[in-house]
């Protein structure tokens, strides 16, 4: 069986009576170069890999061949017999059936990768929950070294943008704060079964050991960023005075003290600007 061959994958899935569920973001890779390239970008013989959404196991197969251990988390139990056939022969692969957003990944890392030097995440992510998964992986401060993920091209551009540029959004802030991000390569839509309506890209986030800015309250820092980007067409002073329920002159003084112009919008601020602003507001209120 060749997992990169559309005929073999279709035959395997139909022999198990599998029907794709759009609601679970089920677009499986059917290209012979993409999964090896993703696995190469994160694997070595001493690394443990958490895969999210193994699907039919095409990426899992590559990861299992190149990493020390793979734990793959799949929400759809209908894929059990398919995965048994594709990766059941590996003794370094474990499949956990569950929702990645509900499982305790910290516990999984502590219990399952004792013999691994480090742990990375690698996934062709279900697109309906790309941002929640990435944010949750980053904010829970898992003991992982990197995240390699296939995401929609537009999401890749936003996730790997820098604050202070037009592509940036609130999710960009979490990515920039916790990691160094880059787009590795683009993947056209015809590399998937069924083909989605959009192209994709593989990104890599290398988890930082030290944060790029010092903030006095991370909660306030991210709260201000979310408030600013929730109303990105408004000036930051209007967005924040609504959000903080604070009079406009006070907000303007916070901006001024942080060296930010009165008319700035969220997308014009760098991560350093948001840090200075949140530190200023924090100090004034504590
Ligand atoms: N890795 C496979 C590949 O590359 O061909 C499949 C990727 S497909 C884009 C996304 C996979 O994530 C599907 O198998 C889907 O069932 C699974 N999935 C969707 N939501 C999930 C969740 N909340 N937790 C874990 N897996 C999920």
Task: Please give the structural blueprint.
Blueprint: H1 6-15, E1 28-29, H2 34-42, E2 47-52, H3 58-66, E3 69-74, H4 80-87, E4 93-97, H5 105-112, E5 118-124, H6 130-139, E6 146-152, H7 153-159, H8 170-178, E7 179-187, E8 192-193, E9 200-207, H9 218-230, H10 236-244, H11 248-257, H12 271-285
Helix pairs in contact: 2-3, 6-8, 9-10, 9-12, 10-11
Bound molecules: S-adenosylmethionine.
The site of S-adenosylmethionine (SAM) has 23 residues, from β1, α3 and β3.
Task: Outline the structure in words.
It is elongated, with a radius of gyration of 21 Å. The model has no long low-confidence stretch (mean pLDDT 96). The chain has helices at 6-15, 34-42, 58-66, 80-87, 105-112, 130-139, 153-159, 170-178, 218-230, 236-244, 248-257, 271-285; strands at residues 28-29, 47-52, 69-74, 93-97, 118-124, 146-152, 179-187, 192-193, 200-207. The longest helix is centred in the C-terminal third of the chain and has 15 residues, at 271-285. The protein has 286 residues and is α/β, with parallel strands linked by helices. Helix 6 packs parallel to helix 8 (170-178) and helix 9 (218-230) crosses helix 12 (271-285). The strands form two sheets. Strands 4-3-2-5-6-9-7 form a seven-stranded mixed β-sheet. It has a two-stranded antiparallel sheet with strand order 1-8. The termini are far apart. The protein folds into two domains: 6-207, Rossmann fold; 218-284, rRNA adenine dimethylase, C-terminal domain (Helicase, Ruva Protein, domain 3).
């Amino acid at each position: 069986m060749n997992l990169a061959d559309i005929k073999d994958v279709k035959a395997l899935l139909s022999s198990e009576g599998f029907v794709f569920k759009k609601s679970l973001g089920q677009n499986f890779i059917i290209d012979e170069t993409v999964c090896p390239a993703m696995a190469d970008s994160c694997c070595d013989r001493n690394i443990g890999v958490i895969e999210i959404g193994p699907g039919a196991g095409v990426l899992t197969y590559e990861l299992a061949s190149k990493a020390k251990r793979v734990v793959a988390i799949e929400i759809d139990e209908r894929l059990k017999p398919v995965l048994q056939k594709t990766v059941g022969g590996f003794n370094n692969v474990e499949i956990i059936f569950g929702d990645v957003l509900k499982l305790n990944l910290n516990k999984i890392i502590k219990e399952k990768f004792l013999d691994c030097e480090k742990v990375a995440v690698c996934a062709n992510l279900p697109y309906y929950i790309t941002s929640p998964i990435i944010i949750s992986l980053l904010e829970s401060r898992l003991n992982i070294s990197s995240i390699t993920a296939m995401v929609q091209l537009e999401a890749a551009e936003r996730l790997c943008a820098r604050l202070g540029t037009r592509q940036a959004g609130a999710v960009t802030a979490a990515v920039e704060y916790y990691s160094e991000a880059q787009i590795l390569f683009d993947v056209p839509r015809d590399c998937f079964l069924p083909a989605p309506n959009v192209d994709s890209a593989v990104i890599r986030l290398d988890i930082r050991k030290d944060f790029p800015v010092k903030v006095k309250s991370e909660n306030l820092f991210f709260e201000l960023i979310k408030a600013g980007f929730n109303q990105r067409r408004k000036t930051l002073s209007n967005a924040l005075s609504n959000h903080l329920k604070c009079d406009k002159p006070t907000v303007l003084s916070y901006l001024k003290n942080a060296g930010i112009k009165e008319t700035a919008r969220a997308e014009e601020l760098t991560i350093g600007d948001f840090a200075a602003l949140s530190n200023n507001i924090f100090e004034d209120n504590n």
